[in-house]
Design a protein that fits this description.
Low-confidence stretches of chain B: none
Largest sheet of chain B: 6 strands, mixed
Mean pLDDT of chain A: 94
Helix content of chain A: under 10%
Oligomer: heterodimer
Largest interface: A-B, 23 and 20 residues
Low-confidence stretches of chain A: none
Structural class of chain A: mainly beta
Mean pLDDT of chain B: 93
Order of helices and strands of chain A: EEEEEEEEEEE
Radius of gyration of chain A: 14 Å
Helix content of chain B: under 10%
Shape of chain A: globular
Largest sheet of chain A: 7 strands, mixed
Number of helices of chain A: 0
Amino acid sequence: DAGVIQSPRHEVTEMGQEVTLRCKPISGHNSLFWYRQTMMRGLELLIYFNNNVPIDDSGMPEDRFSAKMPNASFSTLKIQPSEPRDSAVYFCASSLQGTIPYNEQFFGPGTRLTVL
Amino acid sequence: AQSVAQPEDQVNVAEGNPLTVKCTYSVSGNPYLFWYVQYPNRGLQFLLKYITGDNLVKGSYGFEAEFNKSQTSFHLKKPSALVSDSALYFCAVRDGGSNYQLIWGAGTKLIIKP
Protein backbone atom coordinates (compact mmCIF):
# COMPACT_ATOMS: atom_id res chain seq x y z
CA ASP A 1 0.00 0.00 0.00
CA ALA A 2 1.33 3.42 -0.88
CA GLY A 3 0.02 4.99 2.30
CA VAL A 4 -1.77 8.31 2.44
CA ILE A 5 -0.90 10.44 -0.56
CA GLN A 6 -0.94 14.22 -0.48
CA SER A 7 -0.31 16.76 -3.21
CA PRO A 8 1.34 19.09 -3.69
CA ARG A 9 4.18 18.60 -1.21
CA HIS A 10 5.03 22.28 -1.31
CA GLU A 11 2.91 25.25 -2.30
CA VAL A 12 3.99 28.86 -2.43
CA THR A 13 1.30 31.37 -3.28
CA GLU A 14 0.47 35.02 -2.89
CA MET A 15 -2.06 36.45 -0.51
CA GLY A 16 -5.53 36.39 -1.96
CA GLN A 17 -5.00 33.40 -4.19
CA GLU A 18 -6.99 30.18 -3.96
CA VAL A 19 -5.15 27.12 -2.69
CA THR A 20 -6.32 23.52 -3.06
CA LEU A 21 -4.69 20.68 -1.18
CA ARG A 22 -5.41 17.10 -2.15
CA CYS A 23 -5.45 13.80 -0.28
CA LYS A 24 -5.88 10.17 -1.20
CA PRO A 25 -6.49 8.04 1.92
CA ILE A 26 -5.48 4.44 2.37
CA SER A 27 -7.84 2.10 0.55
CA GLY A 28 -10.43 0.61 2.89
CA HIS A 29 -10.17 3.31 5.51
CA ASN A 30 -13.45 4.95 6.39
CA SER A 31 -12.24 7.99 8.34
CA LEU A 32 -10.27 10.98 7.11
CA PHE A 33 -8.77 13.84 9.06
CA TRP A 34 -7.25 17.16 7.98
CA TYR A 35 -4.75 18.68 10.40
CA ARG A 36 -2.70 21.85 10.45
CA GLN A 37 0.70 22.01 12.16
CA THR A 38 2.44 25.21 13.21
CA MET A 39 5.16 25.99 15.70
CA MET A 40 2.87 28.23 17.70
CA ARG A 41 -0.26 26.07 17.87
CA GLY A 42 1.08 22.56 17.34
CA LEU A 43 -1.18 20.01 15.67
CA GLU A 44 -4.79 21.14 15.16
CA LEU A 45 -7.66 19.06 13.81
CA LEU A 46 -9.45 21.02 11.11
CA ILE A 47 -12.11 18.59 9.95
CA TYR A 48 -13.10 14.94 10.31
CA PHE A 49 -14.95 12.84 7.73
CA ASN A 50 -16.50 9.44 8.34
CA ASN A 51 -17.75 7.44 5.35
CA ASN A 52 -17.23 10.56 3.20
CA VAL A 53 -19.53 12.67 5.40
CA PRO A 54 -18.15 15.67 7.34
CA ILE A 55 -18.76 14.91 11.00
CA ASP A 56 -16.87 17.66 12.75
CA ASP A 57 -15.66 20.87 11.10
CA SER A 58 -15.40 22.88 14.30
CA GLY A 59 -11.66 23.24 13.80
CA MET A 60 -11.94 24.98 10.45
CA PRO A 61 -10.60 28.47 11.18
CA GLU A 62 -13.12 30.48 9.19
CA ASP A 63 -15.25 30.56 6.09
CA ARG A 64 -12.19 30.88 3.91
CA PHE A 65 -11.53 27.20 4.55
CA SER A 66 -13.63 24.45 3.02
CA ALA A 67 -13.19 20.70 2.64
CA LYS A 68 -14.87 18.06 0.53
CA MET A 69 -14.76 14.31 0.21
CA PRO A 70 -16.65 13.38 -2.96
CA ASN A 71 -15.73 9.71 -2.66
CA ALA A 72 -13.84 7.29 -0.44
CA SER A 73 -10.55 7.79 -2.24
CA PHE A 74 -10.25 11.56 -2.50
CA SER A 75 -10.52 14.68 -0.39
CA THR A 76 -9.66 18.33 -0.87
CA LEU A 77 -8.99 21.22 1.47
CA LYS A 78 -9.47 24.62 -0.12
CA ILE A 79 -8.45 28.04 1.15
CA GLN A 80 -9.96 31.00 -0.64
CA PRO A 81 -8.66 33.65 -0.32
CA SER A 82 -5.39 32.66 1.29
CA GLU A 83 -3.64 34.83 3.87
CA PRO A 84 -0.06 34.81 5.23
CA ARG A 85 -1.29 33.46 8.57
CA ASP A 86 -2.44 30.31 6.77
CA SER A 87 1.19 29.35 6.24
CA ALA A 88 1.65 25.95 7.88
CA VAL A 89 2.07 22.27 7.16
CA TYR A 90 -1.25 20.61 6.37
CA PHE A 91 -1.58 16.89 7.00
CA CYS A 92 -4.19 14.44 5.87
CA ALA A 93 -4.62 11.25 7.89
CA SER A 94 -6.86 8.23 7.50
CA SER A 95 -7.95 5.36 9.73
CA LEU A 96 -10.39 2.51 10.01
CA GLN A 97 -12.92 3.27 12.71
CA GLY A 98 -15.26 0.50 13.73
CA THR A 99 -15.96 -1.83 16.60
CA ILE A 100 -12.36 -1.50 17.80
CA PRO A 101 -12.53 1.62 19.93
CA TYR A 102 -9.53 3.29 18.51
CA ASN A 103 -7.44 2.45 15.52
CA GLU A 104 -4.36 4.46 14.80
CA GLN A 105 -4.29 7.22 12.23
CA PHE A 106 -1.99 7.03 9.24
CA PHE A 107 -0.58 10.36 8.15
CA GLY A 108 0.40 11.59 4.75
CA PRO A 109 3.71 13.42 4.17
CA GLY A 110 2.02 16.80 4.43
CA THR A 111 1.78 19.90 2.27
CA ARG A 112 3.95 22.82 3.30
CA LEU A 113 2.01 25.96 2.42
CA THR A 114 3.64 29.35 2.27
CA VAL A 115 1.45 32.38 1.62
CA LEU A 116 3.42 35.51 0.76
CA ALA B 1 -10.34 19.77 31.43
CA GLN B 2 -8.93 17.02 29.25
CA SER B 3 -5.30 17.44 28.38
CA VAL B 4 -1.99 15.87 27.50
CA ALA B 5 1.30 17.19 28.81
CA GLN B 6 4.77 16.49 27.51
CA PRO B 7 6.81 18.33 30.13
CA GLU B 8 10.08 18.36 28.21
CA ASP B 9 10.49 20.33 25.01
CA GLN B 10 13.75 18.50 24.32
CA VAL B 11 15.50 15.39 25.58
CA ASN B 12 19.18 14.75 24.95
CA VAL B 13 20.56 11.22 25.23
CA ALA B 14 23.87 9.65 24.31
CA GLU B 15 23.77 6.84 21.79
CA GLY B 16 23.49 3.47 23.51
CA ASN B 17 21.93 4.89 26.66
CA PRO B 18 18.31 4.27 27.65
CA LEU B 19 15.83 6.99 26.78
CA THR B 20 12.55 8.13 28.28
CA VAL B 21 10.11 10.64 26.83
CA LYS B 22 7.47 11.65 29.33
CA CYS B 23 3.73 12.03 28.89
CA THR B 24 0.95 12.64 31.40
CA TYR B 25 -2.73 12.95 30.64
CA SER B 26 -6.10 13.93 32.01
CA VAL B 27 -9.25 12.57 30.38
CA SER B 28 -12.69 11.43 31.38
CA GLY B 29 -13.41 7.74 31.16
CA ASN B 30 -10.95 5.08 30.06
CA PRO B 31 -7.86 6.53 28.41
CA TYR B 32 -6.77 5.35 25.00
CA LEU B 33 -3.15 6.47 24.60
CA PHE B 34 -0.86 6.76 21.59
CA TRP B 35 2.69 7.64 20.66
CA TYR B 36 3.64 8.98 17.24
CA VAL B 37 7.02 9.98 15.82
CA GLN B 38 7.72 12.68 13.25
CA TYR B 39 10.97 12.75 11.32
CA PRO B 40 12.00 16.01 9.62
CA ASN B 41 9.79 16.94 6.68
CA ARG B 42 7.66 13.84 7.16
CA GLY B 43 4.21 13.03 8.44
CA LEU B 44 3.57 11.51 11.83
CA GLN B 45 4.10 7.77 12.13
CA PHE B 46 2.31 5.55 14.62
CA LEU B 47 4.60 3.90 17.19
CA LEU B 48 2.33 2.19 19.71
CA LYS B 49 -0.93 2.43 21.60
CA TYR B 50 -2.52 1.42 24.87
CA ILE B 51 -6.18 0.46 24.78
CA THR B 52 -6.50 -2.10 27.55
CA GLY B 53 -4.65 -5.03 29.08
CA ASP B 54 -0.95 -5.25 29.85
CA ASN B 55 0.44 -1.96 31.13
CA LEU B 56 3.66 -2.41 29.15
CA VAL B 57 3.08 -1.89 25.46
CA LYS B 58 5.66 -2.75 22.84
CA GLY B 59 5.81 -0.92 19.55
CA SER B 60 7.84 -0.23 16.46
CA TYR B 61 11.61 0.31 16.29
CA GLY B 62 12.20 -1.20 19.74
CA PHE B 63 10.13 1.38 21.59
CA GLU B 64 7.84 0.56 24.48
CA ALA B 65 5.61 2.54 26.79
CA GLU B 66 4.31 1.96 30.27
CA PHE B 67 0.78 2.88 31.24
CA ASN B 68 0.52 3.97 34.86
CA LYS B 69 -3.05 4.63 35.88
CA SER B 70 -2.29 5.99 39.33
CA GLN B 71 0.19 8.51 37.98
CA THR B 72 -1.84 9.11 34.79
CA SER B 73 1.32 8.67 32.76
CA PHE B 74 2.32 6.94 29.57
CA HIS B 75 6.08 7.36 29.22
CA LEU B 76 7.87 6.22 26.08
CA LYS B 77 11.05 4.22 26.57
CA LYS B 78 13.81 2.47 24.70
CA PRO B 79 16.63 0.48 26.33
CA SER B 80 19.38 1.61 23.95
CA ALA B 81 19.07 4.78 21.87
CA LEU B 82 20.18 5.08 18.27
CA VAL B 83 21.18 8.27 16.47
CA SER B 84 18.39 7.49 14.01
CA ASP B 85 15.85 7.81 16.85
CA SER B 86 16.37 11.57 16.77
CA ALA B 87 12.97 13.02 15.90
CA LEU B 88 9.91 14.75 17.29
CA TYR B 89 7.69 12.55 19.47
CA PHE B 90 4.01 13.17 20.14
CA CYS B 91 1.81 11.67 22.82
CA ALA B 92 -1.95 11.65 22.21
CA VAL B 93 -5.01 10.55 24.13
CA ARG B 94 -8.56 9.97 23.05
CA ASP B 95 -11.00 12.63 24.05
CA GLY B 96 -13.45 10.91 26.40
CA GLY B 97 -16.37 12.79 24.91
CA SER B 98 -15.59 11.76 21.37
CA ASN B 99 -15.08 8.53 19.45
CA TYR B 100 -12.53 10.06 17.09
CA GLN B 101 -10.98 13.19 18.54
CA LEU B 102 -7.41 12.88 19.79
CA ILE B 103 -5.88 15.35 22.21
CA TRP B 104 -2.30 15.91 21.19
CA GLY B 105 0.71 16.83 23.27
CA ALA B 106 2.99 19.62 22.12
CA GLY B 107 5.73 17.22 21.17
CA THR B 108 9.19 16.44 22.55
CA LYS B 109 12.29 16.77 20.42
CA LEU B 110 14.59 13.82 21.03
CA ILE B 111 18.24 14.29 20.19
CA ILE B 112 20.55 11.30 20.29
CA LYS B 113 24.23 12.22 20.26
CA PRO B 114 26.88 9.83 18.92
